[in-house]
Amino acid sequence: MPQSQRDVRNRIGAVKNIQKITRAMEMVAAARLRRAEQRIEALRPYADAIRRMTRQAAEAAGNVPRLPILQEHAQVGRVGLLLIAGDRGLAGAFNSNIVRAGVAAGRAHEADGRTPVYFASGRRPSTSLTFRGLQVAESFTGFTDRPAYADARRIAETLMAAFVDDEVDQVEIFYNGYISPINQQVRRETLLPLQQATVLDESDEERTGREGRDSEARALVEYEPDPEEILKRLVPDYVEISIFRALLESTASEHGARMTAMRNASENAGELIQNLTLEMNRARQAEITQEILEVVAGAEGLSG
Q1: Which structural domain, as residue segments, surrounds residue 201?
Q2: CA-closest candidate to residue 160, choices 57, 237, 249
Q3: CA 257 to CA 182: how far, in whole Å?
Q4: Which of 7, 17, 98, 161 qualifies as a cystine partner to 3, CB 3.0-4.6 A?
Q5: Residue 118 burial (C-beta neighbours within 10 Å; 0-12, 13-18, 19+)
Q6: 169 lies in some domain
Q7: Residue 299: inside a domain, yes or no?
Q8: pLDDT tens track for 168-215
Q9: Alpha helices of the chain — where are they, by DSSP H?
């Protein structure tokens, strides 16, 4: 049934109001994204240094010190999966990508005879896991727009306690790595035990640089009091900084994804307004044509 001009005009007004909201949200996300990028740029050198120091200390220590947080469990029966996403939606596939990756990993672990234990940072992954009928051991919410180091420490303490108390035998984290406002990459990293940690893997640049420095350069590194003691102090910092970096990467990815999603929504609203305006003009032309035909028909009737 054709819509009246009033109905189409009302729809155009409603779409314009939505377009104003999406443009405002796009600008807010863009401003927050810039701040998040600056925080990542400031943290990355420190995070890389902690990772490098931890790896070097572990290599120098040889046998891992008898410290619970550093002990690899004999069998991996329960795997802790930390899903890091956002508290809010309207960010495209940002949240759902993490949930899908985490749930798929959990099913793969179950197929191999291991039990997944889910942890969630952000309301969206927590509610999504609950909706799927999966139990969340602990969730952390209310800070995804601007995470603080204290939030990372709280999450790290929970995961380390679960590992030391044998509640989990391995810890993996899932988050969106920030590449650009339109490109975020789902990352899966093994955090604990230290012997299996993929977070400590060298990048191509680090590996290339390291190949150019052999035993002579490494011999210059001396540890005081000893590598084992330093490793004991570094591991908690390594876990905290790894989670903090993941939180910052996720925050920047969320703002970038929301900015892109709101820009696309604004563009789609503009196209819809154009289509509705064209539809309204056609309806107006049809009404004018009908009125002209009625006038002509009346005139012919009188003349006849």
Answers
A1: 28-209+217-259
A2: 237
A3: 6
A4: 7
A5: buried
A6: yes
A7: no
A8: 999 999 999 999 888 999 999 999 888 777 765 555 444 444 444 444
A9: 5-61, 94-111, 123-131, 149-164, 204-211, 215-218, 227-303
